[in-house]
## 1
Amino acid sequence: MEKILEEYKAYIENKIVSPWKDFYFSKKTGIRIASIRMLENRIKLSPNEGNYKVYIIENAEMMQIQAANAFLKTLEEPPQDTVIILTTSKPNSLLPTILSRCQKIPFNSIPREIIEQELMEKKYLEKIQAKILARLANGNMAKALSLAEEGKIESQEMTTDFLNIIISENELKFIDLSNQLKSVKTKALLKEIISNLIIWVSDLSYFKNFPSQIVNLDKTDILETLFTRNPKVEDYTSELIDFLEDMQRKIDGNVNQQLILIEIYHKMKEIFS
């Protein structure tokens, strides 16, 4: 219990100091019915200050079924002085009975230019690097700031290594790279690499006619080599991006990560060899 409390304190500190950073508990976590019961008791109390009490349930998709069912009545008829906010990036993972009792408020993507400016001013990144990370973040400021943290550049470097392996057709280096991505802890890293590859494919589609739209401006030599290998790459862009996005979904479905990387490797080799 003491270890759990210490981890929870660290989680809260992380939210205060750097909310964009991922936090991992040592054990699988979920929102249990005991936590919902405790929240409901708090909701019944009068506000200490102001006219309203606001409760935020982060990652609401982590509610266990029993906890979600126990919360239904409170969600349907909350006290007049209470606002309950559920946040999730996976609304389809919530029970339909939960969704039907909520007012859905989508958060629009932040324009890429604003993210670039923030990264340059707050993280002191060069314009090219800020442009790359803003594109990777896909409108998500938290993800952009997280990518800017030291160590997150690893995925970009590994993506570049992967593309150079495709170009050189070096099977031994591919096996070495594949072995680095076989643990559960590297799941997020592999997803970032695939996101990077999607941007590279997009860059290749712009390479000939819209060079100003290219994100990887510091790696045009690789782009040129890949384009030379297959000048008709534009014909494959949509199919390849769909394929890579499907690979990302398979990661969430706990498909073996090495098998996913092998499948991507052979698909890319087929197009660029």
Note: The chain has 13 helices and two strands.
## 2
Amino acid sequence: MRAGIEKAGMDALEHDHVFLGTEHARNERRIWLVIALTAVMMVAEIAAGTVYGSMALVADGWHMSTHASALLISALAYLFARRQARNPRFTFGTGKLGDLAGFASAIVLALIALLMAWESLLRLSNPVPIGFAQAIAVAVIGLAVNLVSAWLLAGGGHVAHGNHAHAHHGHANHGHGDHAHHAKTGDNNIRAAYLHVIADALTSVLAIAALTLGSLYGWHWLDPLMGIVGGLVIANWSWSLMKSSGGVLLDVVPEGETLPAEIRGAIETEGDRITDLHVWQVGPGHHAAIVAVLTSQPRDPAFYKGRLSGLEELSHVTVEVTRAA
């Protein structure tokens, strides 16, 4: 009987470390849909270009294959994170895998921007004949595909909510617990996929504008110039994504983050003082914290975790209590 009670107590204390955002499954489905749409258009453009002898269509089709490959990074990250979410080898779960994929996608975006700018510079110095009507048709098709893709991805990554519940637990001077929350934290993986789509759409818009003006006024130089502008804009997006995803991977506390101050405000009352505090993101909408408390009247860690129960962004809390000399 006693063994059964002890086992029940241990079961109540045990908890998992699944720190995936609540939009995880929906975001994964959306990205696979976008990949399928892109793949269909890729095959259609290559086939049509081959049948009708259009190198512009063939080139755009192969360009879309690289676009689909980049999106595949995000899709596989969601898939792996979901399947390995309860793997104990991942100490704090797989919630950060999306940020790793986002960082990789940011590098791909930067390479795309570099290649766009370089190719445009070559075209400026060595102009080539342009089939304006055909090129505009390809750009319009590409823009339509990217607008549909952006619509599919819209809303999935700008505000990702994470909900996770754990049983509170602790012992004499050390313990950790969790509570349900509805924190608003961006999902860098879906953001990366969205930026890939928007970057491609921007390229199409700039191309349509440049080609239209070029066909009307003979401004052949405008097409490569727009390529350079597009490359600079995409490079800026890449840098922004690299900073946000890289910051999560390195456990950087973002500028303007109020959670550490809120933890101090909740704990440092009645003479209690925090001597060491670490806060980091473990997944979209999920943060972990290690809190070392110095006090003249030590209490159970569960007491201090209770003070933090109103901070919905905290999913995993470890409290260490030390008696003041």
Note: The longest helix spans residues 188-217.
## 3
Amino acid sequence: MKQDSTTHGTSPALAISSWSLHRALGLTFPNRPDHDVEAVAEPTYGPGRLTLLDMPRAVAALGIDRIEVCSFHVPRRDAGYAAAFRAALAEAGVTLQTLLIEYGDITDPATRERDLAWMESWIDTAAQFGAEQARVIAGRSQPSREALDMSIAGLTRLGHYGEARGVRVVTENWFELLPGPREVRYLFDRLDETVGLNGDFGNWSGEGKYADLEAIFDLAICCHAKADFSGGVLQAEDYRRCLDAADAAGFRGPYTLIYDGPDADEFRNLLVERDFIRQYYARARASAG
């Protein structure tokens, strides 16, 4: 069932991904299907000045009460750490919207079963951490009928696995398997409602980008609202046209703010994205009134 967090013209729910704070967090903990061991901290983006337990409070200070967390930002998956993270969420009044499971290819016959089992273990982690959703990758293969059908079978398995644990599984218009709306719609015409679509502004490009986004956003239950910060400033026309495409398709949020531009001040640029979306909907409300 399509999630509708707002009515047209009202401000949608917003979230912030841990990817948007990767400089502030600094450390990553790369657990992958081919390296499924207890993650050891790597200073991928420097030593960091926030821990994951600090993130809910830092996001709440921006007036936003939802977050998403990349799997490689999770330092531990034991029950004690999960309880500490849920306590940090509760104290800040913040909801864990999605655990983003960042690896795995369910369309590679050689590693499919391994990767499905690994993703299931992370769906268990999502449930432990109190996440509403878990995002999985639909596949990394070229979009043949065989690969798409393999993805459908794998996503269906993961969707039911998540449903049994109170976690909605979502996938997104990402990577080689889903280069355009035709492939996305083929997939979702054959999936049941245990799997949702996370539409992403930043994964497609080219002349037909906005029409392509509009062609799938009626399916979306959440969105990665990534702005283009080329040149160090938000490209307003592009962001507005992405929002127009989503809105025209009937999407009403939640929008997850994604920032990975060149300016190291992540918090300042997240506020730019936040305010742009709020002003977009304020104008829509004013014109409707």
Note: Residues 266-288 form the longest helix (23 residues).
